[in-house]
Task: structure prediction
Amino acid sequence: MSKDIEIHLKDFQLYISQAKESEKKENFSKAVRMWGHAIDSLEELKKIDPNKYNRETYEKKIYELERNVKECKKKVKIRVDESDSKKEEDKLQKQLSSALIKESPNIKWEEIAGLEKAKNALKEAVILPLKFPQLFKEKRKPWKGILLYGPPGTGKSFLAKAAATETGGKFYSISASNIVSKWMGESEKLIKGLFDLARQNKPAVIFIDEIDSVLSSRSDNDNDATRRLKTEFLIQMQGVGNDDDGILVLGATNIPWALDPAVRRRFQKKIYISLPDYNARKLMFKLNLGDTDSEVTEKEFDILAKMTEGYSGSDIATLTQDAIYGPLRKCQISKYFKYIDKTHISPCSPSDKGAFKLTLSQIRNPECLIAPKVSFEDYVLSVQKIKATVNEKDLEKHKEFTQEFGQEG
Result:
């Protein structure tokens, strides 16, 4: 007898023993599995055993075991396994738990420069229905879908965070990583689970950032999993039999023309978040500077706002951050310092009164160093380095989309 045949015979005897033991304990589900493994072992023996008589014996035994399997299946009661169902639900809840913003982002409407139309539209769609549900009766229904679109860095996600701060309801922030899975059928379950979770915790807002990454136009090149994901989203967002009152889906994208037409239709309001205008840019410089020590005057802020036409809100934030580092660079390269009080020193010009020669590496007490205030010159140097990231071609595309489908924000 060959070694392989001996191994399969041992496996077969082990499975037979476990199947009989499971039947005694009335664990018929396990018994079915063990009988099945025993049959698999016999099938392997049929392939490798050269003895014709033995192969016939295996065939007869397989027939006998298949009858055992059928008998066990009859004894298994048809019931919903609540334990497995609970495990599946817990798994989905765990995967989606990271999407729920449990703590407020603490961003107020006043902290968003410009975008008054967009803010008013969100207040109308998010705040009013959640805080004053009695106002929405009969034919006056809350908006179910709002799409925020525009060039990158214009504040779309910032607006969503402000809405999360102002609302008293649940706020779910979703990206592709939350709802796209490599496992077959998992993505559809996650989308359905997300909407079910929102329905259980109404009023709720579902925010999907970079929505084009998961809901782009359907095509023949889509694989089966991608098509099912998009279909499930469409069904859940506006499907027959779903109670969607009290749920708002808020989407954000830089390329709205890439969205599937059916997805676009479900967003009743499409708001263009454009590049900030002059007044908004001026306010952005002040907001991004915050309480940082500065000697920039009101007139100089006006000049900066004029110099940065075509910059997005993100560009201005980056520019301001670079300008704020200006005083630290002065500390690094300066070879002269002076006392600004009895205990603190700051970099200065060699011609300044009280200037003495010193380098940063020679300072023994780090706490004595005070950085100069942020100056207009720091901003000018940063403007020369930090350029606008949005080009005219992209802006034209957004304007064309707005003329055809959207509205100004």
Notes: The CA atoms of residues 22 and 179 lie 40 Å apart. DSSP finds 16 helices and nine strands in the chain.
